[in-house]
Amino acid sequence: MNYLKIFAVSIAIAFGLSACGTGIETENRFPTEKPGGKSDPFGRAGNEPGVFGEGGLFGLGGGGSSDDGNANGIGVNSFLWRASLDTTSFMPLSSADPFGGVIITDWFTAPEAPSERFKMTIYILDTSLRADGVKVSVFKQAQAPDGAGWVDAAVTPGTAAQLENAILIRARQLRIDTLAAEE
């Protein structure tokens, strides 16, 4: 038992002493200049990529081009993403996942029709600006006849397609604006 106590005290003293400094003042010097003379606080040489490759950690470094609509590192086409948010900006947002490409709105009741409400789920399916790169699901509820709650109702046919077309038109406008700004 005494050996165990001596061993424990020895370990505690060893850890205690290792935590103490040597008393010698040293200055840490990190490289701040690239071979070309440009400042780099991380000391990388030349055109070495950042952490985990060219785009940085998880591709968030913004290494894409604006032509493909994926310049900001999100997992979907940025023009479709921004257009979807612009098109549904009148509705309250419940959830938005730019990496998975899903936007879910909360229930919205228009002032001119207080007895019905709508909800949307928008899926951005591709990293390219394509007509089949967006899918919209629309849900509608109407107030129950007794006024006690909401019941599911049929959505007017073509509503989802109209919303998809509005998103695509806005996405094309955003792309044209971006291309014009680059020239």
What does this structure look like?
This protein is of the alpha+beta class and 183 residues long. The protein has a domain at 68-182: Alpha-D-Glucose-1,6-Bisphosphate, Chain A, domain 4 (2-Layer Sandwich), CATH 3.30.530. It has 3 helices and 5 strands, in the order ααβββββα. The protein has a 5-stranded antiparallel beta sheet, covered by helices on one side. Strand 4 and strand 5 (150-153) form a beta hairpin. Helix 2 crosses helix 3. The longest helix has 24 residues, at 159-182. The termini are far apart.
- Assess the beta-strand content as a share of residues: 15-25%
Query: What is the correct CATH architecture of the domain at 68-182?
Result: 2-Layer Sandwich
What is the radius of gyration? 29 Å
In DSSP terms (H or I, runs of 4 or more residues), the helix count works out at 3
Cα distance spanning the termini: 82 Å
Residue ranges: pLDDT <50 for 5 or more in a row? 38-53, 55-66
Average pLDDT figure:
77
Q: What is the string of SSEs from the N terminus onward? A: HHEEEEEH
Largest sheet: 5 strands, antiparallel
Number of strands: 5
Strand order of the largest sheet: 1-2-3-4-5
Question: What's the shape?
Answer: elongated
Overall CATH class of the domain at 68-182: Alpha Beta
CATH topology-level fold name of the domain at 68-182: Alpha-D-Glucose-1,6-Bisphosphate, Chain A, domain 4
Look at the helices and sheets and give the structural class. Answer: alpha+beta
What level of helicity do the residues show?
A: 25-40%
